[in-house]
Amino acid sequence: MKTLSEIKQILQTQKPYLAKEYSVTEVGIFGSYARGEQRSDSDVDILIELERPVRIGLMGLIGLELYLSELLGLKVDVAIKKNLRKRIGQRILSEMIPI
Predict the structure, then answer these.
(1) Paired residues of 49 in beta bridges
(2) CB 76 within 8 A of CB 43
(3) The pLDDT value given to residue 57
(4) Cβ atoms of 22 and 64 closer than 8 Å
């Protein structure tokens, strides 16, 4: 199981690639890892913001999740900031750890 610090370091080194390949402008971690409640079977929840007006289709999102999962050696769920619903979005943004 990777630590939050290790995950942050890996994501930080990948920011240029994520910007180039997926038009990602911001990356953050939320969920159990951000709250310090992760277990050995926890996934990593990653919030991204995309350069406007770029849209990442379903296949692009799946590709990004697979890329990050392989990179981190953990299951990854990716959420797009502009697609967050108000109530859940507020909670996610309040606990998010920016990269």
Answers:
(1) 26
(2) yes
(3) 82
(4) yes
What ranges do the domains of the chain cover? 4-98
Greatest Cα pair distance, the chain, in angstroms, is: 37
Q: Both tokens of residue 99?
A: 């990269």
pLDDT at 53: 65
Per-residue pLDDT, 58? 84
d(C-alpha 88, C-alpha 19), whole Å = 25
Is the backbone peptide bond immediately before 53 cis, with ω within 30 degrees of 0?
yes
Distances (CA, A) of 49 to 5, 15, 35, 41: 21, 12, 21, 26
pLDDT per residue as tens digits for the range 18-58: 999 999 999 999 999 999 999 999 999 999 999 876 677 88
CATH class of 4-98: alpha beta
